[in-house]
Amino acid sequence: MSNLKPGKGRGRKPVHTEGVNLYGQDAIWAAIRDLGEFKQSDIEMWIFKRNLKSANDGTIRSYISRLTKGGYVELLRKEHYRGKTYLHYYKLVKNSGVESPRLKKDGTPSMQGFGRENMWRTMKIIKEFNFRELAINASTDKVIVNELEAASYIRFLVKAKYISLKTKACNSGKPARYRFNSIMNTGPKPPQIQKSKSVFDPNLNKVVWEPTNNKKEMT
């Protein structure tokens, strides 16, 4: 095996092992791919060393469980730690690529989040749209984007300056039209709406807009 390190004759280290702009489930999956064999504390340390947005114990444990049930990782052994506590050692057995598997609790594929991914990709392609057009063009046989979801996502992305209002809605019932701001094409991952109603951009790994204390901000 070569002793060359990344940057010394081998080029840059792969992005998924650098952990650039990763958080939550994506960071956990990147750690697992990089480590190969691991225990939970190894993932926590991997994330900590890269100064990524932290994932709590419950999130890591839950994702490992889903990956195990889905056949992506397998339990190698359990070692007694203290009292009734055991350390669980795992191994990656199905490396599906950079994108983290989206799985339900039982390990089966989940379609959650694909609607916003489709909308984010679609608005960058069609450039101008109303909420109905966005919903229709972002829908597929497997992922249906409803109009309310599209309207809500548009509302937040306007506040975060990703899209701009082109024409206002008319009294005749014609909906408002919007334009995607190409300068705000920050990357492939869709901006996310957090529980706090803030807009988080995973491509930039930061909150790009958050509501003020003024209730009128969110109306």
Description:
This protein has a three-stranded antiparallel beta sheet. Strands 4-6-5 form a three-stranded antiparallel beta sheet. It is 33% helix and 18% strand. The N and C termini lie far apart (60 Å). Mean pLDDT is 86; it is low at 1-19 and 214-219. It has helices spanning 15-18, 24-35, 40-49, 57-69, 114-126, 131-138, 147-159, and strands at residues 37-38, 73-82, 85-92, 128-129, 163-167, 177-180, 192-193, 199-201, 206-209. It is elongated. α5 (114-126) packs across α6 (131-138) and α6 (131-138) packs across α7. With 219 residues, it is α+β, with helices and mostly antiparallel strands.
Class from secondary-structure proportions = alpha+beta
Low-confidence stretches: 1-19, 214-219
Level of helix content? 25-40%
| Count of beta strands | 9
Per DSSP, the total helix count is 7
In percent, how much strand structure appears in the residues? 15-25%
Q: Residue-averaged pLDDT, rounded?
A: 86
Radius of gyration, taken over Cα atoms and rounded to an integer in Å? 21 Å
Largest sheet: 3 strands, antiparallel
Measured distance between first and last alpha carbons? 60 Å
- Shape field: elongated
Strand ordering within the main sheet: 1-3-2
SSE string, helices as H and strands as E: HHEHHEEHEHHEEEEE
